[in-house]
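**User:**
Make up any protein.

**Assistant:**
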Amino acid sequence: MNFIKKIFTGMSDLQRRIMFTLGALIVYRIGSFIPLPGVNASAVLHLFTGEGSGMMDMFNMFSGGSLSRMSVLALNIFPYISASIVLQLLTATSKSLGELRKEGESGRVKINQYTRYLAVFLAIVQGWAVVRGLEMMAPVNGIPAVVNPGFAFELSAIVALVGGTVFVMWLAEQITARGIGQGASLLIFAGIVAEIPGGLAKVISLGSVGQMSPAMIALIAAFVVGIVALIAFFEQAQRRIQILYPRQVMANGVMNTNASYLPIKVNMSGVMGPVFAASIMMLPAFVQRFVQSESLVVQNIMSFFTYGTWTYLALYTLLIAFFAYFQTAVIFNSEETSNNLKNAGGYIPGVRPGEQTVHYLDGVVSRTTAIGVAYLIVVCVLPIILNTHMGMPLVIGGTSVLIVAGVVLDTMNQVQSYLVAKQYSGVIKTAHKKGRFRG
C-alpha cells in the first residue's frame, strides 16, 4: 500500500486523473464478467444468434458483452441514460424544473438526484422484464436459462441487476469528477472497444475460409477509415462569429478595436444525441427479445422497431434529428449569450445588441445544427443500410464508430485544455516569484 501511495504521490494531477480513469475502466470490465446468479449463460447466448439479433448485438456491444454473458452489469448505464432523457425533456417543459436548473450548482445537484432515483426505478422495471423473460425462455438444447426459477431467483436477480446499474452510475460519476472525460460516454466507449477485437477476428476467420473475399475486407476497412475521417472533420468543424468590443485609445493616440470570435460547433450535441436515440430504439427490441408476446397488436407495434427495416431507419433518423436539436438547445442559450455580450460591451458587426442578436444567433445555430444532423444521419444510418439491405458485413456500426471517435477527440481536447491551463498557471506563479506582479 505504501508503494502504491508513493507512486501516486509522485504523479502530477493530470497523471493521477488518467490513472484513476484507467483503473475505473478496468474495474468496470471485471464487473462485466461477474455472472448473474442462477442463470445459464450458454442458453442466453441463443438470443444473440439468428434472425433479428441485430439490435441485440448493438445493445450487447454498447454493454461490452455484459448482456450476452448475462452478468450483473447486463443493464449497464442505459437506465441512467433513459432517466437523463426524461429529466431533460421535463426540464425543458416543466416550469418548476426549469427554475430549478437556473439556480446554478444547487439546482443541478437536485436534478441529478432526481435522475438517479428515476434511473433506479427504470432499472427495477427493466430488471424485472429481463428476469421474467429468462424464466419464460424455452430450453436451448435441453438447457434452461434459469436453474431454479421462482420468487427467490427473481428477487435476487433483480437486486443484482439494479445493484450493477447503481454501481455503474456511481463509477461514471467518479470518472467525471476525478478522472478525464465524461464518465457515461467513457464506459460505453470501453464496452465498444472491448468488443472490436472479437469482430475483427470474425472477419479474419471468414476471410480465411473463403466466405468473405479480400476485396470485401478491403472495402470494409476503407469504409471504416472514411467514416473515422468524416467524424474527425465534423467534430472539429465550427462556425466562427466575429465579436467586436469598444475601441480603446492607446498610449500613442491610435484607436484600437478588440476583436474575438464566438465558435459555434457544427455538432454541438456531440455523441450524446445519437446515444439517446439508440437507447430509445434499443428498449423495445430489448423487451421484445426477453418478453415474448403472442398478441398481434404488440407484434405489429414491435415490427416498427425491427432492426434494419425502413420504419426503424425512419424512426432512428427522426430521433437523431430531435435529440441533436434538443441537446443543442440545452447546451447553447442564445438569449443568455446575447446578454453576456451586451454586458461586456461586445457586438456582432451589422447586428444590433439585444433581440436582433438573439434572432441572429438562433439562425446561425439552426443552420449549423442542420449540417450536423445530416452528418450524424450519414454516420449512424448509412452503415445500417449497407449492412441490412446491401449485404456489407460490417463488424461495427456507425453509431459505435461515432462514439469511439467522439470520446477520443473529446478526451484529447480535455487533456490539451488541462495542459494549457497548467502552463498558464506555471507562468503566473513564476512571474509572481520574480516580482513582476505587484498588488
Q: What stands out?
A: Strands lie at 238-249, 255-265.
